[in-house]
Amino acid sequence: MLQVILDGEASSEQKEYFKTHMDLCMPCFKGYELDMAIKQLVQSKCCGGDAPSDLVQQIRSQISQKIS
Amino acid sequence: MIEETPQIHYSDKEKNEIFHGEFMPHINSMYNFAYRLTLDGDDAKDLVQDTYLKAFRFIESFQRGTNAKAWLFRILKNSFINDYRKKSKEPNKVDYQEVESYYNSEDVDRQITPDLRVEALKDMIGDEISNALNSLDVDFRTVIILCDLEGFKYEEMAKILDIPIGTVRSRLHRARQLLKEKLSTYAKSMGYKSTTL
To answer: Most buried residue among B48, B54, B88, B163 by CB atoms closer than 10 A?
Structure first.
């Protein structure tokens, strides 16, 4: 349940239920908060930045040879 | 998968447009995915290059306007399994039987949560989370990358990985649990008191 909320895959009924439930249930609220914090941390810290430019160049030149 | 899809004829100009307009914009995500799978810069480059060449070779199986990113990720994942995984030093295979029965057990939502608090996460710099992710078994690592990093939906993940949605969910659940355990160990080593949630 928590996971579908976290990943934006919950139905509107599930969302509604979870919202009401979370107001009353501290462990669920804490659990959700922690999971969301980890998810956001992964998003912000593990993206890796740009692909090496030599790789990009190599692919582009190989493809242009195939097309021409 | 590639052989099954209906072929569409594209002119060279169209192929060029698709390749540069729809495939190349995903190069950074593709490289990051390849790097996280292989954990090696050179292997990641080779894997991405192979994937893009394959994508071009099979471009007529790609339908314009459909999800190019998911299509590319699927090719990359398959190339990794077929060509790289064999030679990589990744010995541990996950016992999915065990994972599934774990997930289907009644304890799944009442399991012991590793001692970890949001405050502890705030002090983690990039390396800890990145290392924790990399230390997970490749199948667990993969679902976290696809979901949390790349924002794929469960249905897209199921297609990329050739597994049922239920398995996507259970694997993701287990992966997050394992990641939490790793982060909890880091947090402890940084001196955070273990506090149960």
So the answer is: B48
Please compute Rg for chain B using Cα positions.
19
Taking residue A43's Cβ as centre, other Cβ atoms within 10 Å add up to 13
What total of structural domains would you count in chain A?
Answer: 1
Q: B124 lies in a domain?
A: yes
CB pairs under 8 A between A and B: 105
Of the candidates B127, B121, B123, B112, the one whose C-alpha atom is nearest the C-alpha of residue B177 is B112
Is B109 found in the same domain as B68? no
Three-state DSSP class for residue A48: coil
Domain of residue B106 covers 96-189
Judged by a CB distance cut-off of 8 A, whether residue A53 touches chain B is no
Q: Is B131 exposed, middle or buried (0-12, 13-18, 19+ CB in 10 A)?
A: exposed
Residue B170 φ/ψ, nearest 5 degrees: -70, -40
CB contacts under 8 A, B 50-89 vs A, are: 52-53, 56
